[in-house]
Amino acid sequence: MISEDNWQDHYWNYLARLEVSAIDRSFEDLKPWDSLAEDCMNLAIKAPFLKGKNSGSKSIKLSAAFLKRTMSDFRGAWLLINWGYPYQAACVAASLYENALVVNCLVERQDLADEVLLNKNGDVPWGAQKLCKMAAYKDLYGNIPDEFPNDDEFNTAWKMCYHNYKLLCKMKHPTLQQVADETRSALNHKGEFAVIPLPDTRNESLALKHMLMIICISKLFSATKCFAKAVDCTSDDPEHEQFYSEALKVYSNLKRCIGESKIKDISIKAYGFKFT
Predict the structure, then answer these.
(1) Range of the domain at 87
(2) d(CA 203, CA 116)
(3) Is residue 238 domain-resident?
(4) What is the pTM of this model?
(5) Residue 50 neighbours by CB under 8 Å, 6+ apart
(6) Count of domains observed in the chain
(7) pLDDT tens, position by position, 34-77
(8) Separation of alpha carbons 215 and 69, rounded Å
(9) Residue 2, domain member (yes or no)
């Protein structure tokens, strides 16, 4: 029997009940995002099954492995958000972000795929900032150059991409911003915080959850889009036409959800880093 003297010994199982309640709450609070996440995941699953001129290329096959990891990260982040652990979801989202960028950069470049495959440690040989520059330039101009320009359009694009990644890192690493917000979810009637894990179901946490949903869905969608384009299906392929129609639906609903989100109220800010 649980009492004031022994509740710590029973909290592990009780926490599971709290998490189930958090999922029920999230079903109402995040319902539009849940439908969008499902549609985006379904689209990503279909991309590797498209048949085109480049289906068997080495860069496509390698990118498929990173796309799979991106999808797994997506599911993991989604579960953590719905269980009431947004800061833990941000840690997974940071991994998703990098893996999605790798897909964008490798999928049409055999030479870059070879750089990864030939790396003696099996590492991707570019840091997050370089990946952001590569992906941003490709989004703007359709390719990845040997040297990047110093113009306003490109600088704005890659810095925004990198800023979003650093925002996730701010939540992944120990900071007063993060712990100050998370402890507010476990305050007692005296204003003291309990040192226990506890799902965050506060209305104040919705801005953070919305931001994480936006980043995760946007990056998975971007990786999926780049992958499908690289396969190079014929324009009259019925599966490609269906895929493109579903992609337009996801993109349209993502824009709508962003417009209706609470991201302006997010309590975490990314600063104290350099764009160098």
Answers:
(1) 7-265
(2) 43
(3) yes
(4) 0.92
(5) 228, 231, 233, 237, 239, 240, 243
(6) 1
(7) 999 999 999 999 999 999 999 999 999 999 999 999 999 999 99
(8) 16
(9) no
